[in-house]
Structure formats: C-alpha cells, structure tokens
Amino acid sequence: MTDQRQKTGRLRLAPENFLSEEEVAAVASQGASGRRDFLRKSFMAAASAMAAPVVAHAADGDPNILGNPPWTTSLGLPVAANPYGMPSKYERNLVRRESPGLTRVSAASVAFTPLQGLFGIITPSGLHFERHHQGWHDVDPSKHRLMINGSEPGFLKQAKVYTMDDIMRLPSVSRIHFIECGANTGMEWGNVAVPTVQYSHGMLSCSEFTGVPLRLILEDCGVDFKKCRYILAEGADGSSMTRTIPMEMVESGEVLVAYGMNGEMLRPENGYPLRLVVPGVQGVSWVKWLRRIEVGDKPYATKDEAVHYIDLMPDGLHRQYTSIQECKSVITTPSGGQMLLDTGFYNVTGLAWSGRGKITRVDVSFDGGINWKTARLETPVLSKALTRFNIDWIWDGKPAILQSRAIDETGYVQPTYGQLRAVRGTKSIYHNNAIQSWKVSETGEVSNVQVL
Amino acid sequence: MSRFSKPLIILVLAGLAGSALAFDNFKGLGRPATPAEIKAWDIDVRPDFKGLPKGAGNVDLGAEVFEARCASCHGSFGESNEVFTPLVGGTTKDDIKTGRVKSLQDGSAPQRTTLMKVATISTLFDYINRAMPWTEPKSLKPDEVYGILAYLLNLAEIVPADFELSDRNIAEVQQRMPNRNGMTTDHGMWPGKGIGNGGRPDVRNTACMHNCKKEVQLVSTLPDYAADAHGNLAEQNREVGQARGKVTGAPAEKAATEPLSENARVSQLASATGCMACHGVNNKIVGPGYNEVIAKYKGQADAEARLTQKVKAGGAGVWGSVPMPPHPQLSERVFTK
C-alpha cells in the first residue's frame, strides 16, 4: 500500500543507491549467479513500479524533463482521427458502473456516475447516471410524437400532436439543473453498505438542458389552468412510465420539454429524443422518451407513486407523492475507497445542491462535525443545479473525519443521520440527504463511515 | 430616467403576458389529435377509475394467463423472489378489515411485497395493462388484465376463488385492499399546493460552527464482506491527481474501450433481447444457464434448429416445471448469433 502513497515527479535516488554496502557485498559475493538473481529481482520490482504510479528518478533531475518524451519529439495524429472525440485512454477508469447485487435485472437497474473523478458542475453526457424501468431504446426521432390531451375533453380547447420538427421550432430555453434519483444514497439508510461516492451518491448528474417550457405548449392547446392542477407525463418505452407533476411547477415556466443536453441531443439512455425536465424533483419525474402529457384535476397514483418511490415511515405508513430533493452535499475528493498520496496540502472539494433553490453556503468539518469551516463556492451558483465547493486542508497524517453540510436559500440546513433517523427511521429507501462522513486513517486510506 | 411612464410599462407587460397565453399561438406547429390517436395512447387509469376500460376476467382465466405469461418471472403464485420482489404475501384477513398492513408497522415481514404496499387497485390495473409482460408490454387484452388481477387478489385472499373482477365491481374490491389506508401525504416534499403540508421540512438542523458536540459517535463502517464487493477500487479512480483508488477485490474486468470478443458480442445481444433476465451465462436464474444448455445439446447435429424452434415457440418440462414463454418477436438473425 505504501507504493500508492508516493507521488510521481518527485526527485529520488536511483534504485542502485538504495542498496546498502552490506547488500552490495552480498550480491558481489554470490558471483555471476548472484548478479543475475539481483537483476531479475530488480526487473520485477521495476515492473511492479510501472503498475503503481511510481517512477524512480535520477539524482540530477526528472527524466521526464531531462529527456523529452515521445510526444515532444514526434509527429502527432491528424485532425478528425476521432470524428466524435473520446476521453484520453488514461481516463478509462471513470465509467458508469452498476452496484453488484443491487438489482437482479439489468434492464430495470442503475448505472452510477463516477463522481469521484469529476470537476465543476456539468456531468459529461456519457457519464450521466442511468436508471431504466424496462430497458432503453434508441428511438427514431422522425417517428416520435408528443401528444397533449386532457383527462376530460373539455380541459383543453384542442388536444394536439407535435412532431420533433414542431417542437424544435418552438421558442427554446437552455438551463443548467441537477437530476438526482429519489433513491440516491438509499442503500445507506440503515448502515454503511457501499465503498465509494460513485455508489453512495452517483445517481446524481447535472447538465445544461435545452427545450421548450411545457407551459407554452399547454397554452398552445388552450389548457384550462383553473381546472387542471396536475399533469401526467408518460414515456414511449415499454414501461410507458408515468408520473404526476403539479401544475404550479408548469406555470412557473421551469418544467421543460427538452431535446438538448450539453449542447447536443439527449443521449438515448437519457431519453432521446425528448424528455421532461422537472427541476428540483427526483429523477423519476423527468420522464424519458416523453410521448404524452395529460392535463387533469386529480393525481394519478401511478406504479411509481403507489408501489415504488413511496417512503416507509416508522409507524408503517408510506409517504406518497414525495418529490422534492432536499438540500444535500457530499465531498467527492477525497472520498471513500481512495488513498491520499502523502501528508500536506489538499484541495478538498465536493458538490452541493437543493431542490428548493440556490445553495447559499457549504461548511466542511475535519473532526466529524465538532467544528466547521465555511468552504468556497465555485461559480456559477444556480438554482436547482449542482454547486461545486472547495476548501484548503493540510493533512498532518493523523486520523480525521471529513463532512460537508449545505445550506440553501430557504435557510434549510442539511441534516445529520441522527436527525433524519429520529423522524424517518431507517427503512424509507428514498430521500436520504444526510451529512456524509469520510474517515481518513493514518495510512491515508479514506473510508465510508456514518456519524450520528 | 425611463422615457416611459409607469402605467405604460404595466400595459406593455400585460400585453406580453396576454400574447404568451394565446391559444394556437405557433402558426403551422402541432395539429389536432384524432379521436383514434387519443384512444390509442390515453390508457391511464386513475384511482377514481377514470380511464378504466370495460371488461371482466375471473380467477381461473387469470391463473391460466399468469402461468403462461407471468410465472416465468414472478413464480406460479406471485411469490417468487428470483427476478423481482414478490407480488403477494405479508397481508392478513385482519389487514383487509383495517386497511392497514400490520407487518409494515411491526416490521415483521422480511420484505415488502406489492400487495403489502399498494393502496389503490387502479395502480395495479394500470401498470399490468401498460407495462406487462416484461418482454412484451401492452400485449394483454383488458379481460386478461382483469383476470390476472383477480388471480393475484385471490392469492392474497382478498377475493374468493370463484371471483370475477370487472369494471363494475372493482370499486367494491378497492374497499378490501389490505393497505388502502396506509398512505400519508402529510409531508413537505410535494412541489405544489394540492398535496402535502405546504412544503414544511420534517427535519431541522442548525448551522453550528464551533464545539457543536462533545464527541463523535461513529455508528457504522463498511462491513468486511462488502469491502471487495465492488471490484478493484484502484481501477475505478483516476491514476493522476490528489488521490488514488485503494487496491481491493479481484482484478477488474478488461477496459471497456477494448474491442469486444465474439463471446462478448453474443452476450450483449442476449442482454439486449431480454434473455439475461431469466438465463445467466454460468448460472440458472429462472431458466437454465447458457453453459447448462450448451452442455445438454452438445454434439447434437440439429441442436441449432431445435433450440431456435424452442425459443420462438416456448417450452416447459426440459429443465423443470417453470415454462419459458414464446418469443416470436426474435428474428432468425438473432438466433444464428
């Protein structure tokens, strides 16, 4: 484990100088076979060093500086060698992953975003978390339709059908919002269950979405907003997933019928060619492959608001129609499953978000919540979007417990596990927004722990 | 100073709001939905049964359809935990009287079945009708949906064995749902006015900064058995930067960027066509694992033709009592892979 903690680029003595006089004498005394033995061993040591991020350096300087590397002394690749650019091969570790054993059917499962390796607030589209209820399809946009109708015919002047061509000609907006699954951190309600932030908090992404305010489309159909206080959104996949959304959110203009994500069309896994964007509300309401909006006067108690996405309370009642993702934060570096390289300075950084508006402050504790310091907020700080924070830390090599605590513009302070469990128990699965703790041990190992 | 008087600005703003509210505002975009189109897509059923299609189905019909179309995932009695969480179980006659499932209150049930949770029978009709069976959603007729629902309700002893469920009596059955009184909307997490307590949070923390508590109560750490369950964490972290991943577990699978082997391509196809829901590569889930099938049919000259026929038509009895439903939708091209 010590190999992992040594930094690259530091000047160190060449390997032969690590041999003591006694060791040199011992090798010499064994003659030719002793030298071969020594060479074989040192070759094996060098091979293992290549696997670990450690390179031995000559005393007169870093060979990466003293001898120019191949990319400095040869011709590079031409333009358009990758017509659709991909990340560096050195970034292959940062991919979406399933949590083994979480589900038995991968078409109704989750792939988590690798938050441990991301910067800023935008999630690369290829790393946006996945949650499907009956598998995903690559829907032909020329055959995709959006229908607007009413639970009563009189609830709108005209039920209409829009093609993608129609929708993409309507007045558009582009907005940055987070999307978090209601079950994010759900595995951790009772105890620590997973090792890294990818699995504990990775049902979370943030993108710039481009689309049309749903309000404009409903107005175009002559919807009676006085009578219709709910909408039902329905997908075009096999599950034809449905969710109830309050008309107040549509009227505010923030609910979007979106086709764009981070400057290009939505990815198939994220609802290509059309999805609903419901800022601040759990991901299940952001219906993918959106095919229909029904306006109505009552909520619908769909499968995902009557069998799933209901929160079990200690008294045996389930909370129904819980939708808002309350204020939450997590430190992403350093985080569970990581090893610190060394003592000294670190830029501790993480994400904060609230389904009720803007983040106003994030505090960080290094002693398990006894004392707190206010972190810097990176910009932009946007309503119902991820906000990146960071704070200086000099690790002295002693054990520490790192926590972050976010506050939103309503004044709500992210709660502790003790406070949440006192009200909601440990079996509600959904809406766990407790303060996350990462323990740093003397070896530099960072692990997932829970503090009341 | 503005050149416009205040009343004029208000008028202009009102004018903008007025035009934004216009019906048929976007010339040439969108068209009226036809009655047939609305009928084809408007399939939702609400708790007050608005949208419920006319029809009827009894427990016997339901048992028959369930065995053929549903049991391979849910088990013959909706009790299987192999693929999905059980549908039936954990409710009592007393729950039917009270409308509250007792095992949810005392925590005595090992897990929550669908019938323990659901309060509204409309939800079950709507979902079975729109999304089931798993690999062929929307292929059931309304009478079959009524029958399947009657069968499940009978398994939970909510209706008798000779019961026929229909659009005419479903409201009466609603009054026997075991957890019909088990939902609450007394919370602050609905982003509108119609439901909930108006957005009042249930938990209140304060932003204390110094000496906030006497000691740190560390109540949970990662269990030993879970330490390696997610593979090698060193291969899930960047190899440059502030930290590295810890070396854990078995070496992770090969990098996803490498070209897929022929085996991997077939495996992807099996996943994509839904086969992996019931058949593992090396293990039985509901049906036999692929390795078991290969071992059984190895060396038989007509194996490919026979297996193709079996997958298309369905079958039972070769590997046990659970039948495999037919898969007529798969093309010949898929089989020869």
Describe what you observe in this structure.
The complex is a heterodimer of chains A (452) and B (337). By secondary structure, chain A is an alpha+beta fold. Chain A folds into 3 domains: 3-66, no CATH class; 106-319, Oxidoreductase, molybdopterin-binding domain (Sulfite Oxidase, Chain A, domain 2), CATH 3.90.420.10; 328-449, Immunoglobulin-like. Helices cover 14% and strands 27% of the residues of chain A. Chain A has helices spanning 21-29, 31-51, 63-66, 164-169, 197-201, 214-220, 247-251, 417-424, and strands spanning 110-111, 130-131, 145-150, 160-163, 173-180, 204-213, 230-235, 242-246, 256-261, 264-265, 275-277, 290-296, 311-312, 318-319, 328-333, 338-340, 344-353, 359-365, 373-374, 376-377, 387-395, 400-408, 437-440, 446-451. Chain A has a 5-stranded mixed sheet with strand order 4-3-12-7-8. In chain A, strands 5, 6, 9, 10 and 11 form a 5-stranded antiparallel sheet that branches. In chain A, a hairpin with a 6-residue loop joins strand 7 and strand 8. The longest helix of chain A is centred in the N-terminal third of the chain and has 21 residues, at 31-51. Residues 1-5, 13-19 and 42-54 of chain A have low confidence and may be disordered. In chain B, helix 3 (59-69) crosses helix 9 and helix 8 (121-131) packs across helix 9. The radius of gyration of chain B is 28 Å and the shape is extended. Chain B has a domain at 56-174: Cytochrome c-like domain (Cytochrome Bc1 Complex, Chain D, domain 2), CATH 1.10.760. At the A-B interface, strand 3, strand 4, helix 6, strand 7 and helix 7 of A face strand 1, helix 2, helix 6, helix 8 and strand 4 of B.
Tally of separate helices of chain A:
8
Given as residue ranges, the uncertain stretches of chain A (5+ residues, pLDDT < 50) are 1-5, 13-19, 42-54
Amino-to-carboxy terminus distance of chain A: 30 Å
Radius of gyration of chain B: 28 Å
Sketch the topology of chain B as an H/E string, one letter per element.
HEHEHHHHHHHEHEEEHHHH
Poorly predicted tracts of residues of chain B = 1-5, 7-20, 252-260
Strand pairing plus helix content of chain B: what structural class?
Answer: mainly alpha
Major β-sheet strand ordering of chain B = 2-3
Largest sheet composition of chain B: 2 strands, antiparallel
What is the number of E strands of chain B? 6
